[in-house]
Write a structure and sequence with these properties.
By secondary structure, the protein is of the alpha+beta class. It has one domain. Helix 2 (69-88) packs antiparallel against helix 4. The chain contains five helices and eight strands, in the order H-E-E-E-E-H-H-H-E-E-H-E-E.
Length: 231
């Protein structure tokens, strides 16, 4: 099977890279990544990890969220704790700066990579040089009806054709729920003045990609949409 063959080649290359730099295979703090790859020639998007995928056919969007179970637990516990603090009367701006809810959950956040690529209730897919079980590799068909493909990092409330629109939607979302403890809780909130993308002098680890046109080898146009700061 093409997916299994090409996936095995990529994983072997990552494993070799870790060995070359002396990084133990079981090091939870070793380099790792999530990814989504659009392959126009194959008419497919491959995804490992929590990257949001959206496909537009005519005016209809098909969205594929990718929230990890462990992130849902962390986000829920963080939200519950922060809402308790708000009920005690601690001002929202103070909580936005210190985020004691995230601090409470940091041991889980720091250790969650130990569950990467494990068939476990809280297991999840990650590119770290170890084998990725088939359960954690999603393949989305991109047929000739698809006019736009959007690949976005986690945290965006909805897909958008371009980065400025995505940032505007995110800004509106954060204005209504700056702590991100409401209907869609997250593992971190929006600190005052924080922008997700295009911050100078910050290492770039995330990308927002939009590709418009006809799939499967026909004419397309590609819009690189920018990069974000690390989480």
């Amino acid at each position: 099977m093409v997916v299994e063959r090409d996936g095995a080649v990529a994983l072997a290359a990552l494993a070799a890279l870790r060995r070359r730099h002396g990084i133990a295979g079981n090091d939870p703090l070793g380099p790792s990544a999530v990814t989504a790859v659009f392959m126009a020639g194959r008419g497919e998007v491959w995804r490992v990890g929590d990257v949001r995928v959206a496909l537009r056919a005519d005016e209809d969007w098909r969205t594929y969220p990718a929230d990890k179970k462990i992130d849902q637990v962390v986000a829920g516990a963080r939200a519950a704790y922060l809402r308790c603090l708000l009920a005690e009367g601690i001002p929202l701006p103070a909580l936005a700066v210190t985020d004691p809810g995230r601090s409470m959950m940091l041991p889980v956040l720091r250790g969650q990579n130990r569950l990467a690529n494990r068939i476990d209730h809280y297991g999840h897919g990650l590119l770290d040089g170890t084998d990725v079980p088939a359960e954690f590799l999603r393949v989305f068909p991109v047929d000739t009806t698809v006019r736009e493909v959007v690949l976005a990092p986690d945290g965006h409330p909805a897909p958008a054709p371009a980065l400025p629109e995505a940032e505007a939607a995110l800004a509106s979302f954060l204005a209504a729920d700056p702590l991100r403890v409401g209907e869609h809780p997250e593992t971190k909130g929006g600190a005052p003045g924080r922008r997700l993308f295009r911050r100078p002098h910050v290492p770039e680890t995330h990308a927002y990609l939009s590709r418009a046109g006809r799939a499967r080898g026909r004419r397309t146009r590609h819009r690189p949409c920018g990069r974000s700061r690390p989480p």
